[in-house]
Write a structure and sequence with these properties.
With 461 residues, the protein is of the alpha/beta class. The protein contains 17 helices and 15 strands. The longest helix has 32 residues. The structure holds zinc ion.
Length: 461
Amino acid sequence: MAASEHAPNILIVTIDAVRRDHCSLYGYERPTTPHMERIAERGTVFENAIADSGWTAATVGSLFTGLCAGEHGVDPEHSLPEGIPTVAERLRDTGYHTAGFSTNPMASPLFGHGRGFDHFWYWERWSARTRLGAPLRYLGTRLGLSDMGGADMLKALSKHVRSCPKPVFGYVHFNEAHSPYGSVRAYERMFLARNTSWRDVRDIARKTGHIRIYDFGETATDEEIELVKALYDASICYQDMLLGKLVAFLHQHAPNTVVIVTADHGEAFAEEQAFGHNFCLEETQIRVPLVMAGQDIAAGEQVNTLVQTRDIAQTVCAIAGAEQLAETVAQRIDLREASGAERKYAYALRTAMSEEKAAEHREKLTSFDVDEHNRLTTCIRSDRFKLTRKAGAGTVLQDVASHPLGGPDCTSDHPVLAAEMQRSLSQWEQAQLSRQTDASSDVQIDDPLVKERLRGLGYMA
Ligand SMILES: [Zn+2]
């Protein structure tokens, strides 16, 4: 089937681990996202976008299938089951050329995310090409002289998109704001306190590399957390500059492009229990930026409806005129019609890591209580309240309208509401379990460079 000649190019950009409230697009005091703001000026900003999980492989799974995390079953140990249709497959069937680019192996063919892409550039392939260069690049990253692969990824993208057939469906996954915290040095200077020494900065990168980040979260001082935030913000700002370059490239070489920018999840700095990501569904993790522009997307609009990142899948298929995705147990909406849509609840789920993985973490971590944190966690969220359930630890109700970062348990103030949300959450959990396919396969990672990359990002012990 040939795509209509008027079909726009479509690009989804995910910026790893970028939480909503650290984007100046949403009023953050540091100017971290000027280029995202530019996209917003000519497009639509979503004020209440909720990620479907708290870790990359799962949320990218939802982004590509339109399914809840428990329905597709992807997590850091399981890849996307064959047979679940993906956005890339649907668009390829419609006549789109499909191309993915990622610097995080957790968003790559390793987890089945490459299905449906004619071309997928990802870090592992890039590093394999430069095996000798990889350790040097890694050192460069640690010294703040180079980024996490984003600049190279953009070069690969521009080379590919200049010559590939149109219309093109593109996916880009940036990883610059991911731990270990550090940034490109020129950007660090924008947000660091004057008296911060180079040694302090490199100390933080060392302490937050690998799974050490979880021990660091238990022991970090207020000064260290402030430094982490400044480095994180600098990374967001650097990454936003790359986004600006990407958009400028599109204006020139693929002007008829719908651009959708979001994050796979956020990042916590000990606001509640968590530090980093992976272990919870706190507000710092699930509230993400979301902005889209191009073609007939309303310009200068601000949407307050609760939306989820898996809605992007449905929206992209609708824009392309492609067949829709597999049915889901929860509501899914076309983001172009979100302002008039009613959504009572958003949901998210984080599976527990296997006993084998937990044991590896236990062995290597001294301060972080792996068993306390490693629980199946689900949450249900309205525009005002959030109910979180941790396996073996009951539920907590929070008034997130009054306490944007979470706040105290208010179950006793709202017992009827809490019971209603518990029921709805249980129904959603059950519906997913009954649908869950067990066809997903365990992820086998053999390449030592990929293992090192995943360890460096704190995904493997
Ligand atoms: Zn991520």
